[in-house]
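Practice problem 4.
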């Protein structure tokens, strides 16, 4: 499917101080967009970044039929721009679409759209360490009917933002409160889909936690509130007796691409990996025995985010003297090295954005 390109006649002013970028606060000159009507995706195009025009009855407003992805483009040392596991993002987009009763969009079209958008806006890719061009593919339901059923028209678009650290403190370990009242996802629900409602459901607990000085909340299972799930923007991993312990995937946990990358690298290094049900009580018992030495989150936004403190009810434990641990640091260094193509990529995870003509 050909992608038409209309270049902006009014370029935006690009950020000049990359140390103040923050996370996804400004957006590049262009966006990709295509609409699904009459059973097919139509008119794929790159246009100047612009507002969408939606009817007030559009189903996305009333029934939250929406999904999205998160990926990054990286400045490479040779002046080119690289992508990391972008095909996996596209495949996960389609798995989310299936769960939310939305149409799949061809993986090759998704990847080509992102490559062409990044190529056109490659001057927006920041070059400082720890920065990237964050990519947000999104699909929303559109239409003019308030019937409580799946829509027949959809919009898929991609926007891009020059981005720094996800957390204000950068790679400094974060404080996490284990949530014991609210729940994020339940068995049979949409927890494994990357849909906006999952995040909206987390805002109340997250807001309360941040008001108490925490950076994030760690969700527990919705039935017994005894077993670890994930943090809102990250999967969680724990280092117990030298092994990587993480929650098994299912209906309630997003299958993170960074998560999969870390587990793949860990197994190759001979580090033991356990995926299963993790009881909070067992984690605290492991800490008391000196076996729980590190915890860290994995996700596109922060890559690896070390955890310095965990608070469960009225008890707080401090991990690795509130510093990034050696295993967390190793995975961060290796993943960023692969993403920026400074280290060998033996998995075919990375690619270089072509320089298209015209």
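Answer key:
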């Amino acid at each position: 499917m050909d992608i038409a390109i209309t270049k902006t006649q009014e370029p935006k002013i690009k950020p000049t101080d990359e140390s103040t970028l923050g996370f996804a606060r400004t957006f590049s000159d262009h966006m990709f967009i295509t609409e699904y009507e009459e059973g097919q995706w139509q008119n794929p195009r790159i246009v100047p970044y612009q507002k969408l025009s939606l009817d007030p009855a559009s189903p996305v407003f009333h029934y939250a039929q929406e999904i999205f992805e998160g990926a990054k483009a990286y400045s490479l040392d040779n002046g080119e721009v690289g992508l990391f596991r972008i095909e996996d993002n596209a495949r996960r987009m389609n798995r989310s679409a299936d769960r939310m009763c939305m149409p799949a969009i061809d993986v090759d079209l998704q990847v080509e759209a992102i490559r062409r958008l990044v190529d056109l806006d490659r001057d927006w890719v920041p070059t400082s360490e720890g920065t990237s061009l964050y990519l947000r593919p999104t699909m929303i339901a559109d239409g003019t009917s308030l019937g409580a059923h799946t829509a027949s028209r959809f919009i898929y678009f991609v926007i891009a933002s020059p981005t720094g650290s996800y957390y204000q403190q950068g790679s400094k370990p974060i404080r996490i409160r284990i949530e014991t009242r609210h729940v994020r996802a339940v068995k049979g629900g949409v927890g494994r889909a990357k849909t906006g409602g999952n995040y909206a459901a987390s805002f109340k607990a997250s807001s309360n936690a941040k008001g108490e000085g925490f950076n994030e909340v760690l969700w527990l299972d919705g039935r017994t509130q005894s077993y670890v799930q994930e943090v809102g923007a990250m999967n969680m991993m724990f280092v117990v007796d030298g092994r990587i312990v993480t929650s098994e995937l299912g209906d309630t946990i997003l299958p993170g691409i960074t998560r999969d990358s870390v587990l793949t690298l860990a197994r190759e290094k001979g580090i033991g990996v356990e995926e299963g049900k993790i009881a909070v009580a067992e984690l605290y018992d492991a800490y008391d025995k000196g076996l729980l030495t590190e915890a860290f989150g994995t996700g596109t936004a922060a890559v690896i985010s070390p955890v310095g403190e965990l608070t469960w009810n009225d008890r707080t434990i401090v991990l690795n003297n509130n510093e990034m641990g050696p295993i967390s640091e190793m995975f961060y260094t290796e993943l960023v090295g692969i993403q920026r193509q400074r280290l060998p990529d033996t998995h075919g995870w990375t690619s270089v954005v072509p320089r298209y003509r015209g």
